[in-house]
Amino acid sequence: MKYFYTFFACYESGLRVVFCMRGKSSMGQTISEKIFSKSVGRAVKAGDFVEAAIDVAMIHDITGPLAVKTLYEITDRVWDPTKVIMLFDHQVPADSIDAAVNHLELRKFAKRQGILNYDVQEGVCHQVMVEKGHVLPGELVIGADSHTCTYGALGAFATGVGSTDMGVALASGKLWFKVPETLTFDINGRLGRRVYAKDLILTIVGDIGINGATYQACEFRGDTVKHMDIANRMTVCNMAIEMGGKTGIIAPDETTATFLEERAIGGDFALRSDDDATKVVRRYAATEMVPMVAKPHQVDNVVPVTDVEGQHVDQVFIGSCTNGRYEDLKAAAELLEGETVARGVRMIIIPASRTEYQKALKTGLMDIFTDSGALVEAPCCGPCMGGSFGLLGPGEVGLSTSNRNFVGRQGSPGASVYLCSPATAAASAIGGEITDPRSH
Amino acid sequence: MVGPKGGITGTAWKFGDNIDTDAIIPGKYLVLNSSQDLAKHAFENVRPNFAHQVIKGDIVVAGENFGCGSSREHAPLALRDKVSIVIARSFARIFFRNAINIGLPVVECDTTEIEDGDILHVDLEKGSIYDETNKKEYAITPFPPFIKNIIEAGGLVEYVKSGTQLEKRERRETETDLSW
Ligand code: SF4
Fold first, then answer.
1. Under an 8 A CB cutoff, do A167 and B157 touch?
2. Residue percentage of chain A with pLDDT more than 70
3. DSSP letters along A328-379, please?
4. A244 and B CB contact within 8 Å
5. A345, A352, B68, B146: least surrounded by Cβ within 10 Å?
6. Quick check: A207 and A238 in contact, CB under 8 A?
7. Spatial separation of the C-alpha atoms in residues B96 and A405, rounded to whole Å
8. Residues lining ligand 1, judged by CB closer than 6 Å?
9. CA-to-CA distance for A401 and A422, rounded, in angstroms?
10. Measuring from atom 2 of ligand 1, which residue has the nearest CA?
């Protein structure tokens, strides 16, 4: 246990009093506590209610309008236009007049406030925020979207908030938080052939449960995580919210630094959780993991793919902020190359951003996809949230690389959605039924 | 809206565990931004009669983890006009925040014995719920003082407006073409 000395010098009525305190250091801090301490300007610990300064705020086409409405109830200027990022991804290009009106109003807002608006051009919010360098290690980031926790892949404390919270933050640059406890996931070993970060996080969500990490920061560490690239770390952090987590977070390292090198300047790359701050640790062996599938209608309803093999599928969707990156598309293409999508199956592939789309285009993945009979769409959320195109009809079964399978999430409340990795999705599209990707 | 000090009386609509935000308001209605429009589609996929039959003042009662899933504030908004309070064994984090922030009272309480259609009296001041139908009384988990202050102010916007934490900003004329 570390000890430290604190000296307070205090001058009062000309009398100098010196206090000398010697004692146990207060417990060390987790990454999350360190980020909040920096943001609040004093040492804070889990359980404290704080008002913290926001480094970056993200709004999109669905939750943006309500946030702006709240802002205007308080004031008429955002606190700092350089710290607000806007983009449209959920209903893109506008798929209804209501959506078009929301886009119009938000465009006006961005212009008036001088906010960077990527509009419909760049892709899914969380992918764009990370790849454009808007998030740095050690920052406190909020987004008006629950999967904002994805940015923890870069060592930021990033969390999703509602529109009123966002409106208040846009007005003041600050927001109240309860500093969360940290739940640490220590994952070691190599993932086997055709077993991916998605299978890892599905295993964890299945184990912890949809409610198991409510209000906690989910910190992922261990050599499996250490060896993951940023794309895979994003997949892992993305699904922290599916356990109720306030954020997913991974300590920044050389991989993070290399990723951010060309994208942004700054960030605290030395952030670590102190050993004595880590209380609850769950350990997992990556070597034992297998391809997993979340069955309808709950994300923690997770089973090995072998349990649901042979389940007929009507639609297969590869994309979303969970698994729409180049690495995901590549994993799918390895299986789809020279193969065709089964008759009667619709396969929809949507790269998560323009950048990822272009990478896939330049490396020939798009040829593989279109040759196989898949539909490739421009970057956006697509069928993931069931508000736009690619919806499932009553009684249909969808297989998706996204993160949620609640009733009605991808269309009809009478449809069923299974969640899996891009490789499992590709193998299943070829087979017309849920298929173990290791059989290819 | 019912203030935290007033008593609330209403009929229970009982739901199970893990009622997610897609169940409360399906994604296709997220283009709507007003509570009145959203209320027409509340629980549409899981309890299609809810929106038609709910009476102002009714109470939503649920099990664990109510409101899990997305950050859509459309979910508590879809309930706020008609539902006087949501009582659940536990809430998902973002829904809980959102509800408090927009002034929809939410309380945690063991709801196992409360049934659909029970008449409930909620006394937030005393911290109890009396179920007139089964004649049982339940204790409510009290709010931390910080959250109590937000509720008493009538929501986060009012809290911030009345508080000192917002530096006073010079308010410019709001442009007239603003439709929200
Ligand atoms: S891809 Fe899906 S989960 Fe991700 S931001 Fe879009 S709708 Fe939400």
1. yes
2. 94
3. HHHHHHHHHTT--PPTT-EEEE--SBHHHHHHHHHTTHHHHHHHHT-EE--S
4. yes
5. B146
6. no
7. 21
8. A 89-90, 124-126, 145, 147, 320-321, 381, 384-385, 402-403
9. 6
10. A384
- Going from the Cα of A22 to the center of ligand 1, the distance in angstroms, rounded, reads 51
How confident is the model over A32-62, as pLDDT tens digits?
999 999 999 999 999 998 999 999 999 999 9
What is the per-residue pLDDT across B153-168, written as a single tens digit (0 to 9) for each? 888 999 888 864 433 3
CA distance A438 to chain B (A): 31
State which amino acid sits at residue A427: A
Whole-complex ipTM: 0.83
The residue written with tokens 């919210």 in the block is: A241
A126-153: per-residue pLDDT in tens? Answer: 999 999 999 999 999 999 999 999 999 9
Surface-to-core class of residue A390, CB atoms within 10 Å of its CB (0-12 exposed, 13-18 middle, 19+ buried): buried
Q: How far is CA A66 from CA A142, A162, B33, B63, B93, in A?
A: 15, 9, 7, 28, 19
Nearest-CA distance A174 → chain B (Å)? 9
CB within 8 Å of chain B, chain A residues 42-101: 49, 51, 62-63, 65-66, 68-70, 72-77, 90-91, 96, 98-99
Tokens describing residue B125 = 């001041």
Domain ranges of chain B: 4-142, 143-180
In whole angstroms, what is the distance from residue A111 CA to residue A17 CA? 56
Q: Is B95 helix (H, G, I), strand (E, B) or coil?
A: helix
Residues 6+ apart with CB under 8 A from A13: none
**Looking at domain B4-142, which CATH architecture does it have?**
Alpha-Beta Barrel (3.20)
Atom of ligand 1 nearest to the CA of A319: 1
Atom of ligand 1 nearest to the CA of B27: 7
What's the maximum distance between 2 C-alpha atoms anywhere in chain A? 89
Largest Cα span, chain B: 56
Interface residue of A107, A163, A299 to substitute, partner B, most B CBs within 10 Å: A163
Q: How far is the CA of A430 from the centre of ligand 1 (A)?
A: 25
Q: How many CA atoms lie within 13 A of B75 on its CB side?
A: 28
CA B66 to chain centre: 10
pLDDT tens digits for chain B (180 residues)?
344 455 899 999 999 999 999 999 998 898 888 999 999 999 999 999 999 999 999 999 999 999 998 888 999 999 999 999 999 999 998 899 999 999 898 999 999 999 999 999 999 888 899 999 999 999 998 888 888 888 888 889 998 888 644 333 333 333 323 333
Q: How far apart, in whole angstroms, are the C-alpha atoms of residue A56 and residue A51?
A: 15
pLDDT at B103: 86
